Amino acid sequence: MEYQAPSSVTQIEHVIAQLYGGGGVNPQYQKSAQEFIHNFQKQTYAWDLAPQLLASQSVNSQFIGAHTFQVKISRDWNTLSLEKKQWLRRELLEWIVRLSNGANLVITKLCLALTAYAIQAVPDIWTNFIPEVFEMLHNGAIAVSTQNPGQSLFIELPLLEFLTVVPEEVMRGNMVGDKKAKVHQELTDSTQRVLSTLKTILSNYQAQQQKDILIKRKGLKCLQSWILYGVPFESLHPLIDDVINLFPFESTYDEATEVLIELLSSPRIAKYQDTVCEKILRCMTSEWAKNQITAAIHDGNEMVSRNLCRLITTFGDNFSDYVAIHFLRQDIIIYLEMMIMFIGFPGYFGQDQEISFLY
C-alpha cells in the first residue's frame, strides 16, 4: 500500500484501531496498517502528532504516540534544533506525569523514550538527568494536584519504571568513547540517591496495602536492574535485609527471590561470602520456605516452588565451598534436605519429550 500522509490524527487512530483489532481483522489489512504506522513515524510531522495520540482516550493510540517519540529520538535526533530538543524533554516529562495513573505499557514506553532522550542529550544539553527527573516528576505531580485537588497521582510507579529502564537501556546501548563514559558517570553519580529511594520504599511498612504492594514489587524489580548494571556491593548491602524481609510474603515473594538470585550470581559478592550466606541461608531455610515446598509437592504445583528451587540451586552453585565447610551445621543440613525435597516432583516421562541426535 502506497503511503499517503494522514489528513488528521483521527485517521491515524482509525488505522491503530484496525492494527489492534484482534482476530476479526483481515491479516493483510493489519500488515498494511503496520506499514502505515512505520511510514508515519518516518515523517517530520510525526513529532507533532505524537502528543495528540498521547491525548487520546485509547490506550493503543497512547502507546503508539509514546512509541513514535522513542523511534523518532533514536532515528532523527540530529534533525532537531536545540529549541525542539528542549521542548521534547518537557513534553515527555509532562506526559509521564499526566498519564502516571494510566496503563503500565504506555508509561513504560514513555520512560523508554525519555531514557533514549537522556542518552542522546548527555552531556551536551542534559546533565544530572536522573536527579532532574526526580524533581520534575514530583513537582509535576504537585502542580497537577494543586490544580485538581481531588486528583491523586501515583507518581512513584513511573519514577520507579524510569529508574528501572535506565540501567537496562544503558547496558544495551551502543555507545563508545566519551559519550559512553559520560552516560555511565551520570548513573554512578546518581547511584546513592537511587538506592536510598529504594531503601525507603522497601523498608516502609504499610500493612501490605494494595498500593504499597505495587510499589514494593516495582522497587524490587528496579533494584534487580541496578544489581545487573553492576552497582558496588558495598552500596547494596544495606538493602539485603529489606529484600529478605519481603521474601516470606506471597505478594512480593517472586520479585524478592529474583533479587536474591541476582545477588548470589554476582561474582562481586565472593568477598562478602560469610555475611551474605548467613543472611540468605536463614531466609531459605525458614519454616515459611519449607512449608512452601511441602505444600507445592502435595498439590503438585511446580510453579509455586520454581523460584525457590532456583534460589536454592544458585546458592549451591556459587557457594559450594561454604556448604562443604559448614556441612554439619543445622541450617546447612536443612538446606540439603530442602534440595532433596524437590525430588518429590514427578518430572516428565521420556516419551513425552522430543529427542534429536546429531551424527
Automatic annotation (TrEMBL):
GO BP: protein import into nucleus
Keywords for this protein: Nucleus, Transport
SMART domains: IBN_N
Domain Importin N-terminal residue range list: 33-98
InterPro entries hit by this protein: ARM-like, ARM-type_fold, Exportin-1/Importin-b-like, Importin-beta_N, Importin_beta-like_NTR
Keyword set includes tRNA-binding: no
Key word Glycoprotein present: no
GO molecular-function terms, A-Z: small GTPase binding
One Pfam entry name: IBN_N
Compartments in which it is found: Nucleus
Cellular component aspect of the GO annotation: cytoplasm; nucleus
Protein family per UniProt: Belongs to the importin beta family.
Name of protein: Importin N-terminal domain-containing protein
Protein source organism: Diversispora epigaea
Lineage, broadest ranks: Eukaryota, Fungi, Fungi incertae sedis, Mucoromycota, Glomeromycotina
